[in-house]
Amino acid sequence: MITKEIYSGETHQWFMFGRDPSKPEKIIDTNQYMIRTPKSALLMDPGGMEIFSAMLASVVKQVPITQIHHLFASHQDPDIISSLGLWDTALLDTKLHAPWLWEGFIRHFGMQNIEYAPIADEGGRLVINGVEVQFIPAHYLHASGNYHVYDPVAKILMSGDVGAALEDDDAPLEVEDFEEHIPKMHGFHQRWMPSNEAKNDWIRRVRLLDIDMMCPQHGRVFTGDNVGKFLDWFEDLNVGIAIK
């Protein structure tokens, strides 16, 4: 599994984990992200149970496991959080920040030691060792209770399934040619994003943020002008096309 530091500042760093060549063949590739401060860490969308061992090995190279005090799940999908029961056996004094709507479902993955910290519909904030991040509502994109994570200092938006693309294991980590990248995103967004109203509400909300990097849970990271290009493209895309 590739580990890449995507931001380093005075107070914290961001890491991206993904492109795991050892994952089972039929398992979709996922990106996991972590914010590390000197004393605490937030692990975001930590992945499915099939990649737990690779994730654990990669994460502990960057932070002591005793400092992982926070997990975040953007929604309830198994590729995001089905490893919860395994993390539950490995972590102490840890909270899972996830939608209030999905608590009864997420607990099916196993949760005895980790504390569930429900996120309200309007979102919220989390301070990690002095570093504040925001939980941005992204409801119905594609889950009915769904959030993204925004770091106003690093200017990074962890965007869950928004911006996702279906890629080969050896694909680059960053979007280079936006037009070339569109076919990898088009069908995914049209089918998995069910509501144009919800999509446009999210776009209006996100355009108010100062974003240098948008980091989806599948595919490549968007940087610089490609963030705005994605928002423009997504705004023009008609989604929820399975029912006509």
From TrEMBL:
Origin, by domain of life? Bacteria
The record's InterPro entries line, in alphabetical order, gives: Metallo-B-lactamas, ODP_dom, RibonucZ/Hydroxyglut_hydro
Under the heading SMART domains, the entry gives: Lactamase_B
Which Pfam families does this one have? ODP (PF19583)
Domain Metallo-beta-lactamase: start-end pairs: 29-218
Q: Quote the protein name from its UniProt record.
A: Flavoprotein
